[in-house]
Design brief:
- The structure holds two protein chains of two kinds.
- Chain A is an alpha/beta fold.
- Chain A has helices spanning about 15-25, 40-50, 80-85, 100-115, 130-140, 170-175, 180, 185-195, 290-305, 315-330; strands at about 5-10, 30-35, 55, 70, 90-95, 120, 145-155, 195-210, 210-225, 230-240, 245-250, 255-260, 265-270, 275-280.
- Chain A is built from ten helices and 14 strands.
- In chain A, a hairpin with a 3-residue loop joins β11 and β12 (about 255-260).
- Chain B is α/β, with parallel strands linked by helices.
- Chain B has two domains: about 5-170 and about 195-245 and about 340-375, NAD(P)-binding Rossmann-like Domain (Rossmann fold), CATH 3.40.50.720; about 250-325, no CATH class.
- Chain B is built from 15 helices and twelve strands.
- Chain B has helices spanning about 15-25, 40, 60-65, 80-100, 135-150, 170-180, 200-210, 230-240, 250-265, 265-280, 285-290, 290-295, 300-305, 305-325, 355-375; strands at about 5-10, 30-35, 50-55, 70-75, 105-110, 155-160, 165, 185, 195-200, 215-220, 245, 395.
- In chain B, α4 (about 80-100) runs parallel beside α5, α6 (about 170-180) packs across α8 and α8 (about 230-240) packs across α15.
- Classes of the chains: A alpha/beta, B alpha/beta.
- β8 (about 195-210) of chain A pairs antiparallel with β12 of chain B.
Chain lengths: ~325, ~400
């Protein structure tokens, strides 16, 4: 990248780009969003106008060169865009889910390496303060060894506000249903906190509408780096039912509870699951925008230094493997 | 006797789906559940109803969706940028009014038309004073509904719906999340009226409105007799076998209520503070971006051309993001909601079930739903526990780079 302002292009002018990325990119010193590109050019032009972005396109091939792009289109529709971005030497920051299979994931990472560009993944819970606090607490074994983990994120889907063309109703575009869409965050949050290295013994079951999973349940043994034994981890993600939402890590002397919300601290629970106290920290995001800001800062630093950061795409491969294996296990 | 064919718009939502299910088990109704996409349709589960996928904001799609229906239960709510959402919500009412054959409409408004912490001295049944975009729009829709349906001689009931609790309802989830914190305490000991209504009572009232002979009009709908917050919380904690929520001290409760009242009564103070700040710094953009400005400018904003309005909104989002990025950690505990400090909303109520009977009727279902939300453990027996060294090859990230 040059020493002048970093030029960013945004592919996909949907809700994520508008609500999560544009507000923080607009605040980042030394960063300029150069264009928005979307299959619906009117939409791209409208958002570009509102955010003072100079260019709006409906064809990525016609977009001017930039230093990096935000890839905010559905995972099943990215192949050509990625190839083009790498060909033109653009770094790529891809919204989650990064890939629908480990093969695809590795392929993207390898293509990026061949092109000499960096590729990052937007899994913003890595930048929650609670994630870092819990990870450090577990690493120190302050509460004794980890016994098991229960992670769930489940709310009956109510009003979607979406018409029939919604990408999440199209498996080819979305890459799956609730497991890849919501579960990619949940699985990554758990793996980050645990410092997961591998998993085995995965079993999964799904409740689906057509080929879209509306509920996914999975159990697996997760091996932490440096740990003597694997830990049973239980996941449930659902759009069908309201269930407990959060991650509970049961250790020998107490349990830790994390939320899917950046503002929530880590709670320490006693043996009867009553909250005892909260763990505080100083680093990491504690509101909606901060984690997005921090992940962009990490990615841009990775682009500059070429040293893998917390957003490095390769670091999310275990999560992709897990989700792929869960789908395969449920189908078997 | 022929069955009344009732279209439920917004049938994918929490209230809409519960009402569609409730009507469908009664022989006198034939339910047509209208949802916007196939995925939402799949969430309705086993429902003895015809499911139609289409948007009632669109005149042609709406005609098809409402074809052959005698009555409409309007639970649909478009959200988003205020001007767009307002246009869509008004289009829904126009499309319902234009549907041939529809002779009766139940339209859901909200007690939000009175304001979050409604002060009965300034916000009355006849002249409610909303203090949120949602309340402003709901009130405007009420007027439009009365005008449109009145002109077409469609019997219409505008229901200012209280805070709905029960299985799958957000108020019940909110209660549960609050009582997870042992330090949570109800203002005024929870003895304030809640202006809440159980989903069972809503269903009973709706059945009465669809079959009865009441004149058209606007009414509130909350529990009868009114449930206090204490009653509501005790119902939930009892079903969860948890200790009751604590009580906030009287002085703290009064201070909290005064704070909410002041914010509701004097939005101009906020504007004045913003104006002084802006003048002091010669920063007029900051003034235009302030919360108070948005509050006061809500009406005029809706009249602006969409691009101008959207640009102003964008300025607001920029400011919000900037301030969020500079913020430290949030306060460790959330304040009790303004709703818990509010008195009873004024005005008459549509008749419904006795609240104790309604609570008893849903106790089993509510209890099961609450327990599912409370416990982080779930039944893994169908999957079998992951066994250590089960022979599956470990799938690792190591060596992948």
């Amino acid at each position: 990248m040059t020493s002048n302002a970093v030029r960013i292009g945004i592919l996909g002018a949907g809700g994520v780009a508008e609500a999560c990325h544009l507000p923080v990119l607009a605040q980042m010193p030394g960063v300029k969003v150069a264009w928005l590109c979307d299959q619906y050019k009117d939409r791209a032009a409208q958002i570009a106008r509102e955010w003072g972005v100079a260019g709006a396109f409906d064809d990525l091939r016609r977009c001017p060169d930039v230093d990096a792009i935000l890839l905010a289109i559905p995972v099943g529709l990215r192949r050509e865009a990625l190839a083009l971005a790498f060909e033109r030497g653009w770094h790529v920051f891809a919204e989650k889910p990064f890939a629908a299979s480990a093969e695809e994931h590795l392929g993207i990472v390898q293509q990026a390496a061949r092109a000499g560009v960096q590729v990052g993944v937007g899994l913003m819970r890595r930048f929650f303060r609670s994630t870092g606090v819990a990870r450090r607490a577990l690493a120190s074994e302050a509460f004794g060894p980890v016994l098991e983990v229960w992670a769930s994120e489940a709310a009956r889907m109510g009003t979607t506000g979406r018409e029939g063309s919604w990408y999440q109703a199209d498996r080819a575009a979305a890459g799956g249903g609730v497991l890849i869409e919501t579960g990619s965050h949940t699985v990554d949050q758990v793996f980050q906190v645990l410092g997961a290295e591998s998993f085995c013994g995965l079993r999964a079951a799904f409740t689906s509408a057509g080929d879209i999973d509306l509920e996914a349940r999975a159990v697996a043994n997760v091996q932490r780096a440096g740990a003597a034994r694997a830990i049973p981890v239980h996941f449930v993600v659902s759009r069908l039912r309201d269930l407990y939402t959060g991650v509970v890590i049961r250790c020998e002397h107490a349990s830790l509870r994390l939320s899917a919300d950046a503002a929530s601290p880590v709670e320490v629970l006693g043996p009867d699951d009553r909250p005892l106290c909260r763990l505080e920290g100083t680093e990491g995001g504690t509101n909606f925008y901060q984690p997005f800001y921090l992940e962009w800062r990490a990615f841009l630093e990775q682009c500059r230094s070429r040293v893998p950061s917390l957003v490095d795409a390769a670091s999310a491969l275990l999560g992709t493997r897990f989700i792929e294996a869960a789908y395969a296990s449920g189908a078997a | 006797m022929s069955r009344l064919r009732v279209a439920v718009t917004g049938a994918g939502g929490r209230v809409g789906s519960a009402l569609a299910a409730s009507l469908a088990v009664h022989a006198e109704f034939e339910v047509v559940a209208i949802v916007r996409n196939a995925l939402a349709a799949s969430l309705l589960g086993p429902l003895d109803a015809e499911i139609r996928v289409g948007s009632v904001t669109d005149p042609a799609a709406s005609r098809a969706a409402l074809a052959g229906c005698d009555a409409v239960l309007n639970c649909a709510l478009a959200k988003g940028w205020p001007a767009t959402a307002r246009r869509q919500n008004e289009a829904i009412l126009r499309n319902i009014a234009a549907a041939p054959g529809v002779r009766r409409v139940v339209h859901f408004s909200s007690v939000a038309v009175y304001g979050m912490c409604a002060d009965p001295r300034v916000s009355t049944f006849e002249r409610p004073r909303p203090d949120s975009s949602y309340g402003v729009d709901k009130l405007r829709e009420e007027h439009l509904a009365a005008r449109l349906f009145g002109a077409r001689r469609i019997r219409n009931y505008v229901v200012r719906l209280g805070h709905v609790y029960g299985p799958s309802q957000w108020v019940s989830r909110d209660v549960l999340e609050r009582v997870r914190d042992p330090a949570f305490a109800l203002p005024f000991g929870g003895e304030n009226p809640s202006n809440a209504v159980s989903i069972v009572a809503v269903a009973a009232a709706v059945r009465g409105l669809l079959c009865g002979d009441q004149p058209s009009g606007v009414r509130n709908l909350f529990d009868s007799p009114q449930s206090s917050w204490r009653t509501l919380y005790d119902l939930h904690t009892r079903l969860l076998a948890r200790p009751p929520a604590g009580s906030l001290a009287e002085a703290e409760s009064l201070a909290l209520r005064e704070r909410y009242y002041a914010a509701a009564r004097h939005p101009l103070r906020g504007l004045a503070r913003g104006a002084l700040g802006a003048l002091g710094s010669a920063n007029f953009v900051a003034l235009a971006q302030s919360e108070a400005f948005r509050y006061l400018a809500h009406g005029p904003l809706l009249l602006l051309p969409a691009p101008v309005g959207a640009a102003l909104n964008r300025a607001y989002v920029r400011r919000k993001a900037r301030s969020a990025l500079a913020q430290g950690a949030p306060p460790s505990r959330a304040l009790p909601s303004a709703l818990m400090c509010a008195p009873a909303v004024p005005g008459p109520c549509f008749p419904t079930l006795d609240s104790r009977a309604a609570a008893a009727a849903m106790a089993e279902e509510l209890g099961a739903w609450l327990r599912g939300l409370w416990s982080y453990r779930w039944d893994v027996s169908a999957l079998g526990r992951a066994e250590r060294g089960a022979g599956t090859r470990p799938m690792a990230v190591a060596g992948s780079r």
